[in-house]
Amino acid sequence: MADIRRVAVAGLGSVGLRVARALDEGMDGLRLVAVAASSPESAARRIRDFRPAPDIVSLGRVADEADIVVECLPPAVFTELAKGVFGREGRTLVVASVGCLLTVPGILEKARASATRLIAPSGAVAGMDGLRAAREIGLESVRLTTRKPPASFGETVMVEGVAMPTASIDRAVQLFSGNARQSVAAFPKNVNVAATIALAGAGPEATAVELWADPSVAVNTHELCVRSRAGEMKVVCANLPDEANPRSSAITAFSIIAALRRLDAALTVGS
């Protein structure tokens, strides 16, 4: 019988709680042993029906408890978690805040030094297997255009250096145009998709990104256009927002769950 690997979920917001619940309900080869959250009291209430109840630990202790750590945190505290994971050799870190893989200095080198395996699920975008294949033959251009309802950016958003109430936006407004690394720095809570595409494809400097606040769209929409020596690929994803957190797409948590199931699958589909 294969060994059961221990899993901890760091962050119990809408995404983290859904992932933790899926683990509690059962995944082949995996067992939920711990969770970490900013409020242990709130965490205890959220997992009160889990059986058996996982331990509630600090971010610094997560990697002590588990072989696989699933990060579902605000980007601001990602580094604290990563430091603890890198302090224990041979862990696997599943990253929801994919933008941090571009903005945290030296993170890939630290992962290699500690034999940490980093996994970035596809999240709110499709086509990553095709993009990786196109990279092998030779990419010519990669462009992501993201359009979101203005309210998904919060009450205000910066437009040409001026704070604009999102409720007043009555036409499509371009918030950003540049490369993926720049986009992640400018909008760290909204463009994990850009980081995912950059890491799978042409890299952060060679991946073009546009971000729009667009009242004509009802849902978060990502259009990925790829040209390579193999041909052209266009992928459009129109994702419903997460009911508990409109800044995230509803599919994000399920992408993480699918990535976890893949870890112990006898058959995997897609490169």
From TrEMBL:
Keyword Transport attached: no
Domain of life of the source: Bacteria
SUPFAM superfamilies to which the protein is assigned, alphabetical: Glyceraldehyde-3-phosphate dehydrogenase-like, C-terminal domain, NAD(P)-binding Rossmann-fold domains
Record-level Gene Ontology MF annotations: aspartate dehydrogenase [NAD(P)+] activity; NAD binding; NADP binding; oxidoreductase activity, acting on the CH-NH2 group of donors, NAD or NADP as acceptor
Leading EC class: oxidoreductase
Binding site for NAD(+): 124, 192
Pathway the protein acts in: Cofactor biosynthesis; NAD(+) biosynthesis; iminoaspartate from L-aspartate (dehydrogenase route): step 1/1
Coiled-coil positions: none
Zinc-finger recorded as keyword: no
InterPro entries for this protein: Asp/hSer_DH_NAD-bd, Asp_DH, Asp_DH_prok, L-Asp_DH, NAD(P)-bd_dom_sf
UniProt domain Aspartate dehydrogenase: residue ranges: 170-257
Pfam family, one: NAD_binding_3
Annotated ranges, domain Aspartate/homoserine dehydrogenase NAD-binding: 11-119
Keyword terms, alphabetized: NAD, NADP, Oxidoreductase, Pyridine nucleotide biosynthesis
Catalyzed chemical reaction(s): L-aspartate + NAD(+) + H2O = oxaloacetate + NH4(+) + NADH + H(+); L-aspartate + NADP(+) + H2O = oxaloacetate + NH4(+) + NADPH + H(+)
Residues annotated as signal peptide: none
Function: Specifically catalyzes the NAD or NADP-dependent dehydrogenation of L-aspartate to iminoaspartate.
PANTHER family: ASPARTATE DEHYDROGENASE DOMAIN-CONTAINING PROTEIN, L-ASPARTATE DEHYDROGENASE-RELATED
UniProt name for this protein: L-aspartate dehydrogenase
Organism: Nitratireductor aquibiodomus
Gene field: nadX
